[in-house]
Amino acid sequence: MVKFRTPIGARIRRKRIAAGLSQVALARTLGISASYLNLIENNKRSIGGTLLLRIGERLGIDLEHLSGESEARTIAAIGDLMAEPLMRGIEIEPQAVRDLVARFPEAGTALARLHRAYADATMEIEVLRQRLKSDPLLSQILHEILNRIAGIKSGAEILADIPDITEDERRRFITTINTEARELVPTTQSLLAYFDQTSARQRPVSPVMEVDEALITHNNHFPELETIAGILRGELAGRGPIEERQLAAALERRFGISCRIGNAAAASANAPALVFSETMPRPARIFRMLRAYALKASAASLAQTTERLELSTEEARGLALRALSSYVAGAIMMPYDDFLRMAEENRYDVELLSGLAGVSFEQAAHRLVTLRARGREGLPFGFLRTDRSGRLTKRFPLPGLTIPGFGHGCPLWPIYDAFATGGVVRQVSVFPGGGRFLLVAKTVSKHATRFGQKPLTFSIMLGCDVVHADRTVYGDGLDLSAAPVEVGPSCAPCPRLSCAHRQEIPL
Predict the structure, then answer these.
(1) Residues 225-252: pLDDT tens digits?
(2) Is 452 left (phi over 0), alpha (psi -120 to 50) or beta?
């Protein structure tokens, strides 16, 4: 699989030339050497932070456009495309792909969309293949069609090959053929109707993946929802903390939704209610109440934001609405500026942040990923969640931090080690494209359990570029000059052919 660095340098070079600036002149205004700027423009040095901001301000480029995150996703999609067996034997140099995306971004986007359509079509074919093998109704229809065709064929062969049959026998065979042919028509129509209904019901293979991609495209940050969260928090608590009893009273007073702890089966069917198990922790209860409050109080704004995601099915739109209402709930619990300041002061110690904000580890980690307001960005984190089977259930990638859209990840990621340790696991890893990342993982339980019940446990992983490691507590004591752990996205597309941990044949 081909991996590529984002073509930020090419964009800087084009803007510099368009502005009529030499490398020496631009470097002087930025406070760096011309040779260093030359390395940046040739994509031989990664940049970020204040230098990226200064370049954007000097050349008049929005940070979102300059950071290359959308191009990174396009480049990653082209890398996935080149890993397809269909592309075997076609060699494309990394520089050629970088140049293509930098010079012709629309062409890169077109390739990425075509690959997604190809992947969806391939998945649909596999679904139909499995249906042909296992659907009892389809099997019955096909069996009936084959039997009738066999009867017609047998009668026709007798009429053609046996010249001395009697006239009565001939009429009997012709009658049988006509009967089978007439009966074949409605059976064939049933088959066509079956596939017409299947086509009408056809949905994208994974609405969850479609929603994930839409959120990633928007950088998992929605300024309008941050504004709404600020307004709702003011209604509920002012500048003070969110009180569970006060929140429950607001839900019932304004929307008629009662909140109780106990048996969900005992709730009235006529009165809407949120019923929590006795073992659900307080942060989880508050989060669910806030999500319900946001869904009611900001229904129009949430619907408008969902519409802008341009999703293809009602199921995907429903999932997006839930995700966006959860976004608002998290923003109410952890106001943007307060939480960003707290994160910076405590060097992104997620366990400490969860305690200070009164939220769970997962809620705090997820909120860190959304701190992407222009000019007020937090440290850029990637996010990943997996269940005990290793299946990836939530994700937010970064350029160079390749995370599969579904299935399982690389077994060398610390997200899997965390299940064995129970504590925080950290690791410096290098991905096939050369990106070095500090990966931090910890297991979390969604709620406590009674005797005899298995806990619902996940592992959460945050990742940031290793250049930011010293801004976090997780970089303390790490030898960043030591050889990093060589990891990949997952086994099938990973180019590390000699990896002893490989469990699948490489594509």
Answers:
(1) 999 999 999 999 877 888 999 999 999 9
(2) left
